[in-house]
Design brief:
This protein has 120 residues and is mostly helical. The protein has a 3-stranded antiparallel beta sheet. A hairpin with a 5-residue loop joins strand 2 and strand 3. The protein starts with a strand and ends in a 5-residue tail after the last helix.
Length: 120
């Protein structure tokens, strides 16, 4: 038995607005769902898993184009890992730079707080 979801149920389960789901369909991150006789969208567990992947990848800073590339790689199980490795390495470098920048900002703010311990 296959679990099916309406767009509202999928949105609620994935904690993603229905408008975002429709947008992801429009730009090809999600496939076009099947339709009921009344023309309502019907999604399955595979759609839910794909949406969860897209949502999480976006949350951690991957661009839509990067997500599209990761999904294309995932859809081709026999593909070479070089693309994903390169993309992930690039993203990791960007994350490490952000961490470095945030640590420097933390040091500056800590110094500022220490210098403002009195009225002046």
């Amino acid at each position: 038995m296959t679990t099916s979801f309406s767009i509202g149920q999928l949105a609620s389960t994935a904690q993603t607005p229905a408008a975002t789901i429709r947008y992801y369909e429009k730009i090809g991150l999600l496939s076009k769902p099947s339709r009921t006789d009344s023309n309502y969208r019907l999604y399955d567990t595979e759609d839910l898993n794909r949406l969860a992947f897209v949502r999480r990848a976006r949350e951690i800073g991957f661009t839509i184009d990067q997500v599209r590339s990761l999904l294309a790689f995932s859809d081709q199980r026999d593909a070479d890992c070089c693309t994903v490795t390169a993309m992930t390495s690039e993203h990791l470098r960007a994350v490490e730079q952000k961490i470095s920048d945030l640590l420097a900002l933390k040091d500056q703010l800590t110094g500022l707080l220490a210098s403002c311990q009195g009225d002046r």
